[in-house]
Amino acid sequence: MISFILSIIALILGYFIYGKIVERIFGPDENALTPAKRLQDGVDYVEMDEKKTFLIQFLNIAGTGPIFGAVAGAMWGPAAFIWIVFGCIFAGAVHDYLIGMMSLRKDGASVAELVGDNLGDKAKQLMRVFSVVLLILVGVVFITSPAAILHDLVKSVPTLTFVGIIIVYYMVATVLPIDKVIGKIYPIFGICLLIMAVGIGVGLIVQGYEIPEITLKNYHPQGVSVFPYLCISIACGAISGFHATQSPMMARCLGNEKQGRRVFYGAMISEGIVALIWAAAAMSFFGGTPGLGEALGQGGAAVVVNRISNSVLGKVGGALAILGVVACPITSGDTAFRSARLTIADAIGYKQGPILNRFVIAIPLFVVGVALCFIDFNILWRYFSWSNQTLATIALWAATKYLANNGKNYKIALIPAMFMTVVVTSYIIIAPEGFVRFFKGVPTSTVELVGNISGIVLSLICTAVFMKSLKKDNK
């Protein structure tokens, strides 16, 4: 219990202390005209109240990510607390703030354009494809999972019917002005998600659940290594590349650069707190990781969330659980397709004021999305997880170069970029969906060693290339 409470305190202190350090290094200008003021178009560039932008940003980057990811990460025990706290403060929140503010300074540009400006045209082209693929995967994941849950609740209605209803809603939310649907509904869902998490956290403490203390022990029942699997499993609660695709959306809605820390850095810290609460709940509610593993095997994270909510919060909790596992992923799915539309529009310079132009891009995206709905969900999720963290890694390298180019302390982005390079490289080598098939007959410990060494080597190479580029720029 002490570790859990100290972890929450650490996240809050991280916002007030490290968040201010990051803000001071970037140097927001409260007198500058933001894109929402200069480029107001009534569709994507719409100035909104700071509280609204915070809640929309929080819901966009969260959805069920800090819930489902934290539940999965709880399989490794309280080591999850360490990753959430340090990952969130020094990597995830820094990543979200820098990308959001870089976009703000470049007329709300998408992450692909920001990467291209700082890492070159080839990186831009790669990032355009990579980010659109990731966004479509996010959208598809958040079509199929809530549709399956709704079918489980109302068995008389086929899953495909719910899929169709969700897609129609996605299409509407993707093309309508941001303040018409997203600006009105999302702040309400954001508040509900926060209330749900706080209720669970208070319930755990009041009802005396035994939350384990931080130790160096690996609690995973199958002995799966903590690194890098934990860092991939808990993404949205620590660091997530999906956030880099969402922050530019709110960068087009901020009325003042000084709002950036509260909206971007603050939303990530809030998500970290939600992840901490759900990780603690998953660890303690089932009496340990073996019980949690058994519950996950009976229907995945959605079943775990439903059981915990109903027990800790009663009927109210059950209603909130349905909201959490159905409505919240839908709210992330539609903004994923919206971000994909904006990314493609930025890439080809296609104005999005006329509604017909929005449909021209949106319809092909949804055709691809519908086709992917028929692929096994577990396969989609595994590839989404790795590509998500890889996008975050590339975004951090772009932020590092941006800070260096502007004579600022780039180490706040360089260190997490180096660490995440090790994570994603190691994971793709040792994971079942990666290159482990080329190591048949080789002991697992040897494969993991090869993966970790490869990650460290690639991270050092990237750092050396970066330092060389600094010397070249200085000359």
From TrEMBL:
InterPro entries with a match to the protein in the record: CstA, CstA_N
Sorted keywords for this record are: Cell membrane, Membrane, Transmembrane, Transmembrane helix
Give the stretches traversing the membrane.
Answer: 80-99, 129-151, 157-178, 185-206, 226-242, 263-286, 358-377, 412-430, 450-467
| Subcellular location, principal | membrane
Pfam families, alphabetically?
CstA
Question: Per the record's keyword annotation, is Cell membrane included, yes or no?
Answer: yes
Domain CstA N-terminal: start-end pairs? 4-144, 161-283, 297-424
Q: Where in the cell is it found?
A: Cell membrane
Give the highest taxon in the source lineage.
Answer: Bacteria
Bilayer topology term: Multi-pass membrane protein
Member of which family?
A: Belongs to the peptide transporter carbon starvation (CstA) (TC 2.A.114) family.
Please identify the protein, giving its name as recorded. Answer: Carbon starvation protein A
Which source organism? Fusobacterium mortiferum
